[in-house]
Amino acid sequence: MIKIALMILLLFATSGCVKEKKADTRGYKKVYIGIIAPVTGKNRRFFSPSILGVAWAKQVAGVIKEKKVVLVYDVKDTHSTKNGALQALREFAKDKKYVAVISFMSSGRILALQKSIEKLHIPFVATLATSNHLVAKDGYITQVCMTNQRQALVASHYIHDEKLIESVGVVYNATNSYSKELATQFSQNFSKIGGHIVFFKDVHNGKTLRQLPLDKKPLIIYDTSSVKTTLKLLQDIHEHSLKTKIFGSDGLLNEVQRNYKHEMSLFDGVLLVEHYASNQTTSKKRRQFVKFLEKKGMQENSYSLLAYDAFILIRDAIVWDNNPSRENINKEVRNSKTIDGVYGKFFTQHGKIKREIYVDTIQDAKLYKEVIIY
Q1: Higher confidence at residue 363 or residue 18?
Q2: Is 369 exposed, middle or buried (0-12, 13-18, 19+ CB in 10 A)?
Q3: 3-state DSSP call for residue 332?
Q4: 2-145+283-355 maps to which CATH number?
Q5: Which residues neighbour 56 within 8 Å (Cβ) at sequence distance 6 or greater?
Q6: Contacts of 259 (CB under 8 A, 6+ apart)
Q7: Neighbour tally for 98: CB within 10 Å
Q8: Residue 22 pLDDT
Q9: Beta strand 167-172 pairing with 141-143
Q10: Which of the residues 105, 148, 197, 198 has an alpha carbon 20 to 30 A from that of 42?
Q11: Mean pLDDT of 254-275
Q12: Which residues fall within 8 angstroms of residue 195, CB to CB, at 6 or more apart?
């Protein structure tokens, strides 16, 4: 049943929306990329937008004429479990036809696989993982998402230096490693540049803004907790007509669009650090990408963007590599040349992405640029 559902999902994802004459690929070599993803289970929300990013990348750049290569991807379902992810990793690593793996998983899941990835010697491109501790100096993991360290650094300087706000409250979820690490990193950065943390509160047990002392409601609350908690905070702010603003974390809008569409207007004015802005200069490549997503019933989002870039990163490694072995592809993927992504240029250095990112404001279900950080 799961295999049938997966086939339907992939058929849905790979059907095109831009009519193009298909290249004659008879006699071309197939090069395979494995995708490890939570197709089912509690984390399945990562799958649909991410696979669409890969599907579009394959459609527009999956044929490498100069190499007479066609890129093919296969998906293995983790079922949102550690054991499922480990099994998928081992299966792809064992089959030598797969030259690299892309994952649509969180930092916690990949950290649990870290030793196995390094031991199996297969290039592993993480699209959604933000942990500061994933990438080893000479390892096999590459991140295309900004790290918690960079996100927190940008947020702290924007609030302190751009908005000239000296005091900030911080709320987080102590049961979530991403939330806790990002909140801690922000608090340390903000304090280092002369800011004051009014409170640093774990809110996983349901505490909301109204339970904080009246004299401890700063102009900005840095919130890494969850969309559900953020919504409660915004409802409190609206109910009491407070001037407090929320500064959220990356991926927030994706989650709101998926689960809280009816409350979308409450999120207007929320700040966050993201990989794109709706009002940035658009290219033909980006317009086609957005059109493709919209035909699939999905809005522009960072999950699709990052998955696209992961596929293109591996593709370009194959273009530049005269002998596309796992070892050679890993070297190219971790230290890439400048790549023209769907949202602008980027490159990797020692397994970490180097790209421009944005401080955005949510307005009418879109992200509007406040500043660009290069």
Answers
A1: 363
A2: middle
A3: helix
A4: 3.40.50.2300
A5: 289, 292, 293, 304, 308, 342
A6: 227
A7: 21
A8: 67
A9: unpaired
A10: 148
A11: 90
A12: 156, 159, 160, 165, 166, 167, 168
CB 245, CB 270: distance < 8 Å: yes
Q: What are 124-146's pLDDT values in tens digits?
A: 999 999 999 999 888 999 999 99
How many other C-beta atoms lie within 10 A of the C-beta of residue 27? 6
The continuous run of DSSP H or E covering 94 comes out as helix 82-94
Span 287-304, pLDDT tens digits: 999 999 999 999 899 999
Long-range contacts of 202-205 (CB under 8 A, 24+ apart): 202/171, 202/172, 202/173, 202/174, 203/171, 203/172, 203/173, 203/229, 204/173, 204/174, 204/175, 204/176, 204/229
Q: Other CB atoms closer than 10 Å to residue 361's CB: what's the count?
A: 18
3-state secondary structure of 302: helix
d(CA 359, CA 351): 24
User: What are 38's two structure tokens?
Assistant: 């939570």
Phi/psi of residue 215, nearest 5 degrees: -80, 5
CATH of the domain spanning 148-279+358-373, picked from 3.40.250.10, 3.90.550.10, 3.60.150.10, 3.40.50.2300: 3.40.50.2300
The predicted-structure confidence for 39-73, as pLDDT tens digits, reads as follows: 999 999 999 999 999 999 999 999 999 889 999 99
User: Is the pLDDT confidence value at 36 over 90?
Assistant: yes
Give the position of tokens 């949102």.
Answer: 80
Rounded CA separation 245/254 (Å):
19
Residues contacting 10, CB < 8 A, separation 6+:
51, 75
Label residue 26 by pLDDT band (50, 70, 90). Answer: confident
Nearest CA to 132 among 197, 180, 201? 180
CA 135 → CA 49, 145, 185, distances in Å? 24, 12, 17
Please identify which residue in the block is written with the tokens 């999902």. 9
Domain boundaries for CATH 3.40.50.2300 within the chain: 2-145+283-355, 148-279+358-373
Place of tokens 């579009």: 56
Task: Supply the DSSP string of 336-367, one letter for each residue.
Answer: PPPEEETTEEEEEETTEEE--EEEEEEETTEE
